[in-house]
Amino acid sequence: MFKKSGEILLAVLVLMVMLGTGGCEGEVSITTAHFNEATMALGVDANNKPVDPTTVFSTEIPEIFCSAKLSNAPDDTEINSSWIYVKGELADLTDYEIGNYTLTTGGTQYIQFSLTKPDNGWPRGNYKLVLSIDSKEVETLEFTVE
């Protein structure tokens, strides 16, 4: 056992440091923010709600939309959308990120994401949109261009 109060204090400090850092790397983030009603669509209305929901798009469509209801987001919540060409007519291209957009917002509201048609048109194939809240992937929406 410890004979001096200084040794006890030192032991307590060492234990606190060990417990405080043991096994923890990086930052832990807990948020109340989440998505409801995430939907791919041909458009969105003035409130960012989906218009003509679908998961199949034409190669000629000028823009592809996603509408999602963000709920219970603290101020300064970071939302990221990553648009990915999974596979299709471009055989040498798989899981290719086409675009990425980040916004910072809060509250409960509909938000929208969109991607415009590339100069050479949409390649036929499978795509996905990955939505993240504060760097954590929380929603994946798959869609097709035919």
Give a verbal description of the structure.
It is built from one helix and seven strands. By secondary structure, the chain is mainly β. It has one domain: Immunoglobulin-like, CATH 2.60.40. Strands 1, 2, 3, 4, 5, 6 and 7 form a seven-stranded mixed β-sheet that branches. β6 and β7 form a beta hairpin. The longest helix has 17 residues.
Features:
mainly beta, about 150 residues, seven-stranded mixed beta sheet, Immunoglobulin-like, single chain, 1 helix
Describe what is shown at a glance.
With 146 residues, the chain is mainly beta. 12% of the residues lie in helices and 57% in strands. It has a single domain (30-145), classed as Immunoglobulin-like, CATH 2.60.40.
Q: Span from first to last CA?
A: 75 Å
Strand content: over 45%
Mean pLDDT across residues: 86
Gross morphology? globular
Number of helices: 1
Helix content: 10-25%
Encode the helix/strand succession as letters.
Answer: HEEEEEEE
Rg value: 23 Å
- State the assembly state of the protein chains: single chain
User: In CATH terms, what is the fold-level topology?
Assistant: Immunoglobulin-like
Pairing-aware structural class of the strands and helices? mainly beta
Our count of domains comes out at 1
Largest sheet: 7 strands, mixed
Task: List the topology elements.
Blueprint (H helix, E strand, L loop, with lengths): L4 H17 L12 E11 L5 E4 L2 E2 L5 E26 L7 E21 L8 E9 L2 E10 L1
Parallel strand pairs: 3-7
Antiparallel strand pairs: 1-2, 1-4, 4-5, 4-6, 6-7
